[in-house]
Specification:
heterodimer; A: alpha/beta; abc type-2 transporter like fold; 14 helices; elongated; B: abc type-2 transporter like fold; 5 strands
């Protein structure tokens, strides 16, 4: 009963702080909209490329036409020399170069194995991979066509030549996100980080505001009530962000939303531990904000979302798991949404967050008590309560 | 003005030494994140992707195909299945990320010129893994296909192997990936992520740099304060950016092909631009927490917004125009190109000029912001602020 009263007090406190309320409710929605807009074009199209055709035959022109007609590429430059082609890529004016050597068509006909050179700028892996994959598709088609013509010229019947050239085919089937879009890949992960950020910054500030009250008595209950109070606003805002991502950006939601809720609630408890510790150690709102924003990028890139944990050194994964809980939450959260994975697939992550909370929550309680204990009363439990009408009311609530 | 300039630098430095937060944010966190990222991405490429194989043919050709995958370091063939229903369960449970299904009578159909089809199945929920698997699987299967084609030509046309090879590879394409040949993530991501973190630090600190008591000084002193703050945060930020680039190169072998002088120039251009932006916000938004949120929204998401990963050319037009006003947009690709391509400052001239103009504009706005507030500040507030600063110094 007392716990529920504390939670109700926290809810009232949040509603009396307009800035905190705006951050908790509208922060995730605004950021989802901002980030979603970046990926609204599903594919990378019209990548500027450069061509150097030193053959100028019907075959070389046919190859160039294939690239010109492909929506991924935009032939922006026709270079006059290999040096110019290289310079166009060096200076980032073209992301790919296509070089067709002199006598290319003649060499192909006389089976001299002439070589077309494709230069891809690999500095931006996303652009490089897209160019490479699409160029490979075009080239396979061109090479198969030329192969069939050569076989036909050698007296093989056209249908047989086609079957020989094809040999065997391979088809791709991509599950969960057949178009392999960055929108579907990244946006659910961003939403998870927004939940982390609004919880860490808002809860941190609240701990500083209410530190002495928290430290006075029932610190464990008061802190848990605070987490629930702030989570009461942050978690629905996360769901609203997912709804918006689904409606506006067509992010598929395949999983059980109760499971998403379970993951989110477990996570807010887990992430509140470092938030409370950080705020108690700093005891300064501005510094807490600064540090929480500084941690958003490192925690995002170390959570196994962009670079899978299976590819990281195991010692690093163990260290991250011990220090920051996003790694338990990030990928499972997206997996439930995008793949619809069952409870069994995420139960270890939930257990991981529970263990993390069991270890770090008492530490957070201890740090809060230690840092906010009154100088005149170093052992808060033995001190008289301040003269307020309701001992559950914190300064922020008051 | 000069007195104000040096006073501002001295005050900020004393605060940095005493409270440590400036040093933590500008140096300690970036250094730790540099180490973490370098270690995290040490593999550079995605390897050992868990894979399942459903070989319904079990011929020598199908076994050769499976062997090619199991011997390739990109894949780790962990499951040999009898049917596809089990494969779907493994995908659902995240136990595999790629699967290959070879149909029954595959080898016979190849010989009979029936062009059978191998099915490759990918888990699309992890794009980086799926893209790496797709690209490598295509390479393996194309090589195998060329081998099969070669044998078919030899058998059908009764020609020697070298002639068959010339016919099979009549049009030969040579791919060359420049500057980052393995298309590794370490080279791709670390440079920009570490720089973005430093830029966030500069912004988050400078955004609360103008203190209330400084607004009660003479106009010239206030101008000096603004310039001193920009110089202080810009200078330290530049040093931190430079340190980041050097660390990535020395400790994690991210190539550094450019000139150190150009690196310093580019780092200074970004650093002073962001410090100018921060001080400008600080002079107009006098509530530090609100100002910090504004700086965080403008600077923290820049690796996404400024086109460092998902390129600007793929963003909607409105975004392309808006992000052109972010300093990081004029820095990030140049920084990567400087390190990976060895691009010189001459190629970045336009962006460097843009950053210099941006810095000047921000300083002017910051000066206007501090000059406008002379009468608006309560004396009590100013005294409190000065007392706090004196306590520090």
């Amino acid at each position: 009963m007392r716990f529920l009263r504390l939670v109700a007090g926290e809810l009232r406190a949040v509603t009396r702080q307009p800035v905190t309320l705006i951050i908790l409710l509208f922060g995730p929605l605004f950021l989802t909209l901002l980030f979603g807009g970046v990926y609204v074009h599903t594919y990378l199209e019209d990548v500027p490329i450069a061509v150097l055709d030193e053959d100028n035959s019907s075959l070389s022109r046919m190859i160039i036409t294939q690239f010109a007609e492909n929506e991924r590429f935009y032939i922006k430059y026709y270079a006059a020399s290999r040096e110019e082609l290289q310079d166009l890529i060096d200076s980032r004016r073209a992301y790919m170069g296509l070089y067709i050597p002199p006598n290319f068509a003649r060499d192909v006909t006389s089976l001299k194995s002439s070589e077309v050179l494709i230069l891809v700028d690999g500095t931006n892996v996303i652009i490089g991979n897209n160019c490479y994959a699409e160029a490979a598709n075009i080239i396979q088609t061109v090479a198969a066509g030329v192969g069939i013509k050569i076989l036909t010229a050698k007296g093989v019947l056209p249908p047989t030549a086609e079957s020989i050239a094809l040999a065997f085919a391979f088809n791709d089937r991509t599950l969960y996100d057949p178009r392999l879009t960055y929108m579907n890949y990244l946006l659910p992960g961003f939403v998870a980080v927004f939940l982390q950020q609004v919880m860490v910054s808002s809860l941190g500030l609240s701990v500083i505001d209410d530190g002495p009250t928290l430290a006075r008595d029932n610190t464990f209950l008061r802190l848990a009530a605070k987490v629930l109070g702030y989570g009461f606003f942050a978690v629905p805002a996360t769901f609203a962000s997912l709804g918006m991502a689904h409606e506006l950006f067509h992010i598929p939601i395949r999983g059980n939303l109760w499971l998403v809720l379970l993951l989110s609630v477990t996570f807010i408890f887990a992430v509140s531990c470092p938030a409370a510790i950080m705020a108690s150690l700093l005891k300064d709102k501005l510094k807490t904000y600064q540090l929480s924003f500084m941690l958003s990028l490192p925690t995002f890139v170390s959570s196994g979302y962009v670079w899978p944990t299976a590819q990281m050194p195991p010692n690093l994964v163990r260290m991250i798991k011990a220090l920051w809980p996003l790694i338990y939450f990030h990928r499972p959260f997206a997996d439930v949404i995008l793949k619809g994975v069952p409870f069994a697939a995420v139960k270890d992550s939930i257990a991981g967050m529970a263990v993390y909370t069991l270890v770090w929550f008492p530490v957070a309680v201890w740090v809060v008590k230690k840092r906010f204990a009154s100088p005149s009363c170093p052992v808060p439990t033995t001190c008289p309560a301040p003269t307020t009408s309701d001992d559950s009311v914190s300064p922020a609530q008051a | 003005m000069l007195r104000g300039f040096f006073t501002a630098i001295r005050t900020e430095w004393q605060m940095a030494v005493r409270e440590k937060m400036i040093l933590v944010i500008l140096f300690l966190i970036p250094v730790l994140v540099n180490l973490m990222l370098g270690y995290e991405l040490y593999q550079n490429q995605i390897k050992n992707i868990p894979m399942a194989v459903v070989d319904m043919d079990n011929s020598s050709l199908s076994r050769t195909i499976v062997r090619q995958f199991s011997e390739n370091e990109t894949f780790a063939v962990r499951y040999y299945l009898d049917n596809v229903s089990e494969m779907e369960r493994l995908f659902q449970e995240n136990k595999i990320r790629v699967a290959m299904v070879i149909p029954p009578a595959f080898a016979k159909d190849v010989v009979a010129l029936k062009s059978p089809t191998i099915l490759m199945v990918y888990d699309g929920s992890q794009l980086a893994v799926a893209a790496a698997a797709k690209s490598r699987a295509s390479e393996i299967l194309l090589t195998l296909k060329t081998g099969v084609l070669l044998k078919q030509i030899q058998a059908r046309l009764d020609v020697p192997e070298d002639m068959a090879k010339k016919m099979a590879l009549a049009v030969n394409f040579n791919y060359r990936t420049l500057y980052n040949p393995t298309r590794g993530y370490k080279n791709f991501l670390n440079i920009g992520l570490c720089a973005a973190l430093v830029q966030s630090g500069i912004g988050l600190l400078s955004v609360s740099a103008i203190r209330d008591f400084e607004l009660t000084r003479s106009k010239l002193q206030r101008i000096g304060h603004v310039l001193g703050k920009v110089a202080f945060y810009g200078g330290l930020g530049c040093l931190s950016l430079f340190l980041s680039a050097i660390m990535q190169n020395w400790l994690f072998q991210v190539p550094f092909r450019g000139r150190l002088g150009d690196e310093l120039l580019l780092a200074a251009a970004l650093s002073f631009a962001v410090a100018g932006l921060g001080v400008m916000i600080s002079s107009w938004l006098r509530e530090p927490l609100i100002a910090t949120i504004v700086a965080a929204v403008l600077l923290v998401p820049d690796t996404v917004l400024a086109g460092y990963t998902w390129p600007r050319l793929a963003m909607p037009g409105a975004y392309q125009k808006a992000v052109a006003f972010l300093p990081f947009t004029h820095f990030a690709d140049n920084q990567r190109d400087l390190m990976l391509k060895g691009l010189t400052a001459a190629y970045m001239r336009q962006d460097l000029i843009w950053l210099a103009i941006f810095t000047a504009a921000m300083i002017i706005l910051a000066i206007l912001g501090t000059l406008r507030l002379k009468t608006g500040l309560g004396e009590e507030k100013a005294r409190e602020s000065e007392a706090a600063a004196n306590e520090v110094s």
